[in-house]
Amino acid sequence: MTAVDAPAPQAARAAGQTGAIHALTWLAVRQIRRGAIVVIVLAGGMSAMVATTYASTVGDTMDAAALAALAENPAIRTLFGQPVALDSAGGFTVWRTGTVLAVVVGVWALLAATRITRGAEDAGHWDLLLAGRIPLSTVVMRHATVVVTAALFTGVSTAAALTATGTPAAGATLHGAGVALVGVFFAAAATLAAQIFPHRAAASGATVALLGTGLLLRMVGDGVDGLGWLRWLSPFGLTAISRPYHDNRALPLVVLALASSALLVAIPAAAAHRDVRGGWFAPRTGRAPRLRLLGSIPGFALRRLLGPLTGWAAGVGVYYLLIGLLAVSMTDFLADNPRFADLAAQAGFAGLGSVEGYVAAMFVLLAIPAGVFAAVRVAATATAETDRRLTLLYAGPVTRLRFLTAETASTATGAVTLTATAGLATWIGARSIGAPLHLEAALAGAVNVLPIAALCLGAAVFALGWLPRAVSLVGSLPAVGGFLLQAIADSTGAPHWVGTLSPFTHLAPVPDLAPNWTASVGMLITAGAVAAVGAIGYHHRDLRT
Amino acid sequence: MDAFAVRTVGLIKRYGRLLALDALDLAVPAGSVFGFLGPNGAGKSTTIRLLLGMARPTAGYARIFGTDAQDVRVTHRSLAYVPADVALWPQLTGAETLELLGRTGPGVDRGYRDELVERFALDVSKPGRTYSTGNRQKVALVAAFATRAPLLVFDEPTSGLDPLMEREFQHAVAQARERGQTVFLSSHQLAEVESVCDRVAILRAGKLVEVADVANLRRLHRSQVEVTFAGTAPQLDGVPGVEAVERVGPTRLRFTLTGPPAPALRGLATADVTALTIHEPTLEEIFLDYYDEVSR
């Protein structure tokens, strides 16, 4: 090649490279856009809703003494974070929605990041891509950048919603930045984990554990006076000590941004020296066979359940152990501060003054993990079908109905185990601080949410039969959608019938009150009918193998 | 038991507006090794999915040993299947996968399975995710052969195997035939089909274009004939079955022959033929003829 004609091919190469990067960005965007839109809308919508209804729900009930009592109570601080500016709509919104929103954005970002990086690589979707001229580290970074950008948009959406509802711009910006940075941090951590671990499940699991630890550090740091410094070690803690609408401290967020940047910088380094479809930890290349639970279709369904169930039970168990440990502190506080008990009653949590009333209110929330667990398990079956892992089993003398029954029964067993674990953990927590809570009462309260989990299972089976691409979304709807619907209907004064569409409206606060048997049986029958319609669809459709 | 291992009548499958399979009538006699050929997208895998009850027919029906293919509880007791692209549970080792398939499948001859593991040189201690394409195929092949099911359905089972394993596969198919098992083999490896199959069906654009014994199929198709003669050239104009007559030298002639050779031999008798070679077409050449027809 001569010096004269060298520039032309170089220019062409550069143009080609730009085109390739654009195509790569578009590939990543296509894979996360639906979920990203949901999270971005949720972040803005939730913040706007709470901020606009602040005057009607909280309004003048807050005086200085009440606020001081709230801020001093370690149980309140542990569960909901330290309340710092409840006298303003913005501060109240941060306290009420901040942690939930940060967890939602963080979990979404980490799952999206591992799905489109390690998941796509595991499934072999990247083989052709990486045979092209774009190196692995560029492909990984491009995907990470897209998830990070989506996380930043959740922050923009939060800040815009809070500014539009008239709260001070400085606080709104700081809170939005906090939410966004939590998302960025976990997107970066998950992408890094996806370079280290050779499978998607391990990468997701490690990052979820990191998120859980971060949440726990925030709770302990908020709840125990001497350990406040622990919050500097947790993304959730850092957003808490930035104190939006109060001190508006930028330094903690700068620390979080630096930590996220460090993770992002480490990704290309970690990706550069590994094999495609490999990680830093090599998978085991051989082991002795473990033949337990391989003898039948139901046995195998159970075998596949055990690993995920252990993870879910550990997470739910730790949370409800904490709920039990805080029982006395929380109920004493509410008994001493009737204004907050009134406020809680307005929000649908009546009877918080007694231990049983308090755990009953907390058990209502258990319907969400139990329902999502059921949906996610059925979605895993749908994925196994698409990935052709089930093909050889379908080629055996097993009817689809029998197969579906085994999957559904194992998932239901898992949901029962999960709720029982929560009940047991609450009881252990409550007993260890001497709170008056019977084991039967704790278990009754926990399993009382099973009808909602059954609705989720029924909806997921329905989707498996008729909408197999949307199993986790449709399956989560009764629990997550129902909860949001009830919350929105309660706080916006929507017509009564809107609220009754939510299964949560029909859930009795057990063990504080007796179970609502009529509603529970009704929900179980509905769940069974919906599942039966799903089974018909599953029997008649073509398998997606 | 029905005389036909597989029988389809007017089998139609539509995916939306796409007609994947157009009124397929197929009969596979029990005990035969049946080759199922066709270009990509001809409908071979769709047919197999219908035979296994994994897809539902738009019209018509498929029967396995006389039982409707949708009744998988009955039909799958007498068949074993190896898909084109085998996916295994990533966390199960080869041994665990074989145990699962053996215990949920139509039964297993454990002794034979161990022998097959040995013959296919399969390391069963490795987890599914670490297997190569060929090794995943070996796991599925060992599981299928070890069932001793009366019908073995193979969808391109050897695409990832090396020649040594390919030979093992053909050996195992021959053993299955000796035992009276029926083998339904969809494959692009025409040499393999030619060496193991008794009968072949050729599918094109969802329609069956040919079903014949492998030997007859050759006879139905053009052979290349080359003759060397002394003196005047033989008169072959207008002889039935003779086409593309070509003079390749002063005393040599080449032509293609379709159908029975008697008229051509009578024509050749008019000259002093000193040498005669007849080259029968390979399955590959026959198949390429069909390919050409598709592209035309």
Automatic annotation (TrEMBL), chain A:
So which domain of life are we looking at? Bacteria
Which key words tag this protein in UniProt? Membrane, Transmembrane, Transmembrane helix
The transmembrane segments are 36-55, 93-113, 143-162, 174-194, 201-221, 250-271, 309-330, 358-380, 441-467, 517-538
Q: What is this protein called?
A: ABC-2 type transport system permease protein
Organism whose genome encodes this protein: Micromonospora matsumotoense
Q: Lineage in the entry?
A: Bacteria, Bacillati, Actinomycetota, Actinomycetes, Micromonosporales
TrEMBL record, chain B:
Recorded topology in the membrane: Peripheral membrane protein
Q: Keywords in alphabetical order, please.
A: Antibiotic resistance, ATP-binding, Nucleotide-binding, Transport
Coarse class of the protein's main subcellular location: membrane
Listed under GO biological process in this entry are: response to antibiotic
| A GO CC term assigned to this protein in UniProt | plasma membrane
What GO MF annotations does this protein's record show? ATP binding; ATP hydrolysis activity
Give compartment(s): Cell membrane
CDD domains given in the database record: ABC_DR_subfamily_A (cd03230)
Membrane-spanning ranges: none
Tell me where in this chain the ABC transporter domain is found. 6-230
> Which is one Pfam family of this protein?
ABC_tran
InterPro entries, per database record: AAA+_ATPase, ABC_transporter-like_ATP-bd, ABC_transporter_ATP-binding, P-loop_NTPase
Q: Which family does it belong to?
A: Belongs to the ABC transporter superfamily.
What is the name listed in the Swiss-Prot or TrEMBL entry for this protein? ABC-2 type transport system ATP-binding protein
